[in-house]
Amino acid sequence: LNHDTIIHVWQWNDTRYQGVPFREELAKVTQAGYKAILSSCWYLNYINYGRDWPQFYECDPHNFTGTDRQKQLVLGGEACLWAEWVDSTNFIPRMWPRASAV
């Protein structure tokens, strides 16, 4: 990969799912000198009952073991909303106000 490539880290951060926890993945990607963007913490399509926005608000894409230089390579994050459980009838209530926490 060219070093101007931006790596999208979407690995799960929850033991219920398979994959490398995002903190470890961000450390590996940035240690290799790549810029990164994170979406692991902000999958808004999962159906939860009650207040779930605090978990989105509390996720910090710079909360991983790495140097200041590595953390500068993390550009930020994005909210994801997959369409398996979302359509035109529930898009707005699934997305907002939850995405405002990102």
Question: If you had to describe this structure to a student in words, what would you say it looks like?
Answer:
- This protein is of the alpha/beta class and 102 residues long.
- 25% of the residues lie in helices and 12% in strands.
- It has four helices and three strands.
- The protein has helices at 22-31, 53-58, 68-72, 91-95, and strands at 6-9, 35-38, 74-77.
- Strands 1-2-3 form a three-stranded parallel beta sheet.
- It is elongated.
- The two termini are 29 Å apart.
- The relative contact order is 0.21.
- The mean pLDDT is 85.
Concise account of the structure shown:
With 102 residues, the protein is α/β, with parallel strands linked by helices.
Index terms:
single chain, 102 residues, alpha/beta, three-stranded parallel β-sheet, 4 helices, 3 strands, 25% helix
What is the CA-CA span between the terminal residues? 29 Å
Strand order of the largest sheet: 1-2-3
Structural class: alpha/beta
As a percent range, the share of strand residues is 5-15%
How many whole angstroms does the radius of gyration measure? 15 Å
Mean pLDDT: 85
Largest sheet: 3 strands, parallel
Broad shape:
elongated
Please count the beta strands (DSSP E, at least 2 residues each): 3
- Residues in helices, as a percent range: 25-40%
Which ranges are low-confidence, i.e. pLDDT below 50, for 5 or more consecutive residues? none
Query: Which H/E pattern describes the elements?
Result: EHEHHEH
Number of helices: 4
